[in-house]
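Researcher: Quick test of sequence recovery. Tokens follow.
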């Protein structure tokens, strides 16, 4: 019996007792390789001594002070580190407690920016179907996953509209090159801006690599450059949501670096603090801060725990460890090794349609038939079967459904810690392959 309202009332979760490196142990002593970083969070694994020490040291002197009274040194130092590593145009940081809060803040920043500069008619946001931007109401309204939106449609705002995703495996035609496909779907943004009225659109938001809802889908070459051109043409802000794919997960600190663009606002969270404390952030173009400064002077938003001293101290230690140990090089090295291992185990599997992603952010899409890309019947809940089988084998992965359209399709997301080595890669591929086979067998396919 539990007094917690867990995620699913019919599932009693195992109880975690401790973590060590890339492994989590439950109260019965069973060992699990954390191949998904929880939800792409634990990029340094568990119980890292440097991060624990930083948290303890901060709590010894100041755990928390409300930002209406004080700034704090860990937040200032973390902001300095992030701005030093960001493109020159990104000049300020706003700290919150997680990814949904970061997206909510970015949306409000975009809206208030246009009010401050005398364009209050700009209120609309354009996003993509099969995107995910968080579970708070503004973020959920912006996201494009039908399954996650359905329950709450009556209370979602009408400010967001959606265009097609950049999902090459599913939607590129056989007569298109990758580049041609990217330009075609990018130009849907131009058409949607024109449909809505160019002077009403505030921002376009997208994940550089789509995570939870579509199963680690990177854009094709040239897509985001065209998106940036369209935004600039119409004075629309570009918000890139890197809550899941950012902070080194794809092999560079910011995922957008690999697409050759710079956003006006970028959100980050999960890998920022590696799960040691709840934290998220928005990095924003300096002109936002200038507009606020010369306008009302006040950003009409805030949270009790924003710029939390202990959370910022933990995140600062995380980012310093990643730098010191050159872990982004290991992300790229082990990311390549993971693709090779997955391809060796699953590349010719009759029910594996696609293996994709960047760095240590990889997705495996399951299909009923490789030739037609037909997904499994959603009623089978194949993704849930894979998760059960994987946990029974000591593997934590992140399967999900609704890959294709929010209703049908199954995938597995992998986001292991940056500290893994080749032995962990091989363990992931072997246990995941066995789990997929067992799940499909249990479904009668």
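Model:
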């Amino acid at each position: 019996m539990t007094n917690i309202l867990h995620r699913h009332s019919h599932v009693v979760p195992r109880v975690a007792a401790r973590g060590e490196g890339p492994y989590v142990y439950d109260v019965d002593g069973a060992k699990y390789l954390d191949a998904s970083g929880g939800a792409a969070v634990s990029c340094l694994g568990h119980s890292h001594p440097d991060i624990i020490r930083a948290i303890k040291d901060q709590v010894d002197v100041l755990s928390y002070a409300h930002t209406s009274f004080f700034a704090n040194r860990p937040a200032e130092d973390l902001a300095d580190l992030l701005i030093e590593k960001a493109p020159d145009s990104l000049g300020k940081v706003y700290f919150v407690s997680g990814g949904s809060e970061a997206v909510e803040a970015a949306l409000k920043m975009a809206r208030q920016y246009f009010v401050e500069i005398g364009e209050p008619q700009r209120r609309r946001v354009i996003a993509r179907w099969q995107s995910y931007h968080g579970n708070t109401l503004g973020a959920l309204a912006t996201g494009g996953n039908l399954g996650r939106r359905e329950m709450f449609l009556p209370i979602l705002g009408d400010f967001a509209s959606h265009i097609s995703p950049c999902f090459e495996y599913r939607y590129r035609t056989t007569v298109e090159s990758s580049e041609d496909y990217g330009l075609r779907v990018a130009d849907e943004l131009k058409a949607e801006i024109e449909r809505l009225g160019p002077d009403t659109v505030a921002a376009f938001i997208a994940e550089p690599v789509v995570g939870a809802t579509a199963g680690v889908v990177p854009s094709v070459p040239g897509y985001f450059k065209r998106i940036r051109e369209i935004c600039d043409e119409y004075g629309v802000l570009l918000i890139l949501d890197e809550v899941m794919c950012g902070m080194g997960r794809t092999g560079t600190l910011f995922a957008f670096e690999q697409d050759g663009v710079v956003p006006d606002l970028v959100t980050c969270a999960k890998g920022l603090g590696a799960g040691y404390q709840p934290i998220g952030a928005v990095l924003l173009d300096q002109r936002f801060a200038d507009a606020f400064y010369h306008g009302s002077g006040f950003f009409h938003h805030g949270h009790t725990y924003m710029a939390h001293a202990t959370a910022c101290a933990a995140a600062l230690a995380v980012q310093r460890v990643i730098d010191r140990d050159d872990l982004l090089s290991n992300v790229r090295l082990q990311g390549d090794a993971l693709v090779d291992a997955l391809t060796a185990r699953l590349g010719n599997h009759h029910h594996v349609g696609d293996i994709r992603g960047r760095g240590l952010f990889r997705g495996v899409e399951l299909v009923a038939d490789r030739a037609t890309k037909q997904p499994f019947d959603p009623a089978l809940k194949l993704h849930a079967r894979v998760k059960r089988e994987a946990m029974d084998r000591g593997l934590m992965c992140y399967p999900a459904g609704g890959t294709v359209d929010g209703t049908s399709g199954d995938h597995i997301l992998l986001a292991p810690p940056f500290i893994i080595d080749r032995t962990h890669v091989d363990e992931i591929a072997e246990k995941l392959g066995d789990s997929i086979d067992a799940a499909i067998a249990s479904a009668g396919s």
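Residues 94 and 355 are 35 Å apart (CA to CA).
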